[in-house]
Amino acid sequence: MSTKANLANNMLTPEHKKRKLEKIYWISLFIVFGIGVYSIITGYFMQGMESTYLSNIVPWGGWIAFYIYFIGLSAGSFLLSTLVYGFGMEKFEKIGRAALLSAIVCMITGILFVFLDIGRPDHVMNAVIYWNVTSTMSWEIHFYIVYLILLVVELYFSMRNDLVKVAKSKNFKGKLSRFLIFNKQEYTDIDKGKDKKRLKIMGIIGIPLAIFGVHGGTGSIFAVLKAQPYLNSALFPLIFIISALVSGTALSIAIYVIKCKVKKQQADHSMIRSLGSMLALFIGIEIIMVWYEFLVGFYGLEHEEIGTLQLIMGSPYSWSFWIFQMGFALLFPLILLVIKKTRESINWILGASVMVLIGVVGVRFNMVIPTLIMPKIDGMPYGNYYMNLSEWLTSFGVIAMCLILYTIGEKLFPIDELDSHEKGVSKHE
Amino acid sequence: MAIHSKSYLQPEDYSKLADQFVPNSDKVLATSPYDSELGKNMARDARKVINGKLKIEDFHRVYSASLIKEFGDQYASGPTEPGRNSSTSAGTGPKWGMVIDLKKCVGCDTCTVSCKAENRTPPGMSYNVVLETIKGDYPNFSITNLPKPCMQCDNPPCVQVCPTRATYKMENGIVIIDNDRCIGCRYCMVACPYGSRSYDFGNSYEQEMVGYNDVTSPEYGIERGKRKKGAVPEETVRKCSFCYHRLQRGEEPACVETCIGDARYFGDMSDPNSVVSKLAASPRAFRLKEELGTKPRVVYLR
Ligand code: SF4
Ligand code: SF4
Q1: Among A303, A380, B35, B47, which lies 20 to 30 A Cα-Cα from A390?
Q2: What pLDDT does residue A428 have?
Q3: Cβ atoms of B182 and B205 closer than 8 Å
């Protein structure tokens, strides 16, 4: 008897466990999201910027850091997806749509963060109506809109063939898909050819848009500030782009591997490995750039710039530089991705990617805050900034929203290629 | 007699009255060493310029030859005058500028206080600060007091970056913020090399100072009434405006007026004969962070 019961129990376990895990996942996400919404309402809407630890000396803080973090993730994953759709590297096809979806979701999250940082949400449309052509930020706002539209359209065309397939089923997903494809019955080869061409065009348009418009542009929001000598360098937008590639690649790896693990699917080892070596390459380039940025910075002998570098590297805040920026974002993952034993293992590659994802947060904070803490003129006080509880809760809430949106997207749309694995179809139904 | 015989005055009576106590203009002008006819003609045409019947350029074209003949070297105005800074030649009104003599500044912060009172800035915000730096060690040291308002840069980085054109340069040289348009993104604060901008976090002195919220400073000449939670200018960026609202009534900025050391000078930089222009041309003059190319309109004397 007992063995029989055990057996039944054992047989139940995987499916059961998965359900339970999913439940925990959703519940915890919604709790964090709920707390975030609460703190947005009580803080941002009821007290305004007073609810943050921002000051006149440090007017930009954690939300701006998270904003560029998510814009970076978005631009990076999009650039990765162009490998598939723009340049036809079929090898990476499995992550193409996921990369597009994460690009969309991260873009939305980034825009939400910067929206939260705006003091007068009631005036916000002015930024769209009154276009200041010399303002990088004004260009960015317009680019973000175009880019987001492009991403959505591209994702749509990239999964249209699978939408047609899904539309045959009777459930909600089927209905949604039917609606999205305007009741198209068949997906012919002509359609396929057309879509491929469309995707290619959009991918190619998207590359300059993502590089110049979205990420290089976001970098130049900071790089054009002559008031901040540490940021005011031509290398800065490039560092932005390359670290976008680093974090975007890491995100795609992490999403893919975790998804395979959760769904208990066979992961594509060779693809992960080549993504891993791409990640290593990007990290290498970033190290080179950061090195020269600092080198030239020190040789410049500019009081403020050196002061900022000292703040970054040798102040009570410097843990974020040494541990997060140098350790998690650059050196540790690079070592993991170079050593022969670890670079072959999926788990280590996943570990390296997660490290990068955490470390780049530190990179973004170091881009925004230390240079503002440094006084601009002798005799002015040093700033002091760290995120307060309300800012953290809001940030976690928004990040939870990002995950919720992504997971909903995965559930509702055929983000995985339906015919790429035999068991996939049944999983989706 | 006429006054008593009629119940009201006729226009002729006024002129008669006026003749008695306004000195005869011809007689007065005759005492001047300069040409009276020229003066009268210019006055007449100046009225036409004001009425819009005559272009100021034509006015100058007609008179500059005779003015140079009359006044020689001292004549130094008119739009076509050579050697003028091109950035100030647009428009014809005054181009405000400030000169601060650091040798005269005693670091008393009167300017800071009067600025706070005039502009009713909330806690944590001051359009003007006096930065004190100590160089050297006791007993061989020196203290420099650097009063620092907004520089009203001629090439303002803050204007360059504002995504909504809420902050812009006016013809009179002042950089203004349209708080009704500002979205509060604080990009301009990050871009200002002089730390001149502050964000209105919505704080208030109402706790310590009864009636603080009763009125908002009429910055840029706009009356906003009571300071209310969430109403403009709260949650937008603010900065020194050279007391534009005072200039409009013909007063100097509050900091200039109250400076106990008389260290601050204010005036029209486009007029080469004004005190500020002359001081700004002195070898003692310097500007903050000149190398950035922002061209501040606040000049310091070393
Ligand atoms: S000092 Fe700063 S705020 Fe003032 S005009 Fe110059 S850049 Fe703008
Ligand atoms: S805070 Fe206001 S004035 Fe400053 S850049 Fe943003 S919109 Fe312009």
Answers
A1: A380
A2: 38
A3: no
The residues, ordered by sequence, that sit 6+ positions from B96 with a Cβ below 8 Å of its Cβ are B152, B172, B173, B174, B242, B247, B266, B267, B268, B269, B297
Distance CA B256, CA A114 (A): 39
Domain B96-301, what architecture? 2-Layer Sandwich (3.30)
Residue with tokens 């175009």: A146
- Helix-then-strand count for chain A, H and E: 19, 0
C-beta of residue A77 within 8 angstroms of C-beta of residue A100 = yes
Q: Is B132 strand, coil or helix?
A: strand
Assess whether pLDDT exceeds 90 at residue B240. yes
Which of A346, A418, A382, A394 minimizes the C-alpha distance to A66? A394
Q: Alpha-carbon distance B110 to B259, whole Å?
A: 6
Which amino acid, residue B77? S
Question: Which residue type does A297 have?
Answer: G
Q: Mention every residue, 6+ apart, whose C-beta is less than 8 A from residue B171.
A: B90, B91, B93
Cα–Cα nearest to B120, from B206, B196, B248, B207: B206
For residue B267, what is the DSSP state? E
Domain borders along chain A are: 24-48+58-224+389-415, 238-384
Determine, for residues B131 and A379 on separate chains, whether the beta-carbon distance falls below 8 Å.
yes
CA of B173 to the centre of ligand 2 (A): 19
- Whole-angstrom distance, CA of residue A170 vs CA of residue A175: 7
How would you label A114-138 residue by residue, b for 16+ Cβ within 10 Å and e otherwise? bebbbbbeebbebbeebebeebbbb
Report yes or no: A218 and A71 within 8 Å, Cβ to Cβ: yes
Residue of A nearest to B204 (CA): A50
> In Å, how far are A192, B47, B158, B220 from B177, measured between CA atoms?
54, 34, 10, 8
- Where do the H-state alpha helices sit in B11-81? 11-21, 25-31, 36-51, 56-71
Alpha helices in A266-321 (DSSP H): 269-299, 303-314, 319
pTM for this entry: 0.82
Buried b (16+ CB within 10 A) or exposed e, B10-47: eeeeeeeeeeeeeeeeeeeeeeeeebeeeeeebeebee
Specify the domain boundaries for CATH 3.30.70.20 within chain B: 96-301
Distance, CA of B116 to chain centre: 18
Predicted confidence (pLDDT) per residue in A198-208, tens digit: 888 888 888 88
Amino acid at A53: Y
CB A314 within 8 A of CB A302: no
Whether B113 has a pLDDT exceeding 90, the answer reads yes
Residues composing chain B:
302
In angstroms, the CA B32 to CA B25 distance is 11
Cα A391–A106–A370 angle (5° rounding)?
45
Q: How far apart are CA B208 and CA B205, in angstroms?
A: 6
**How many whole angstroms from B273 Cα to the centroid of ligand 2?**
36
Nearest CA to ligand 2 atom 4: B188
Does B183 contact A135 at a Cβ distance shorter than 8 Å? no
Give, using CA atoms, the residue closest to atom 8 of ligand 2: B162
Q: Measure in Å the smallest separation between the Cα of B191 and chain A Cα atoms.
A: 5
Where chain A has pLDDT below 50, the residues are 1-5, 7-8, 420-429
- Provide the shortest C-alpha distance from residue B252 to chain A (in Å): 27
Q: What are the φ/ψ torsions at residue B100 (nearest 5 degrees)?
A: -120, 120
If one counts every other C-beta atom within 10 angstroms of the C-beta of residue A400, the result is 20
Residue B64 in tokens: 């500059």
- pLDDT, residue A419, reads 58
Q: Do B191 and A225 touch (CB under 8 A)?
A: yes
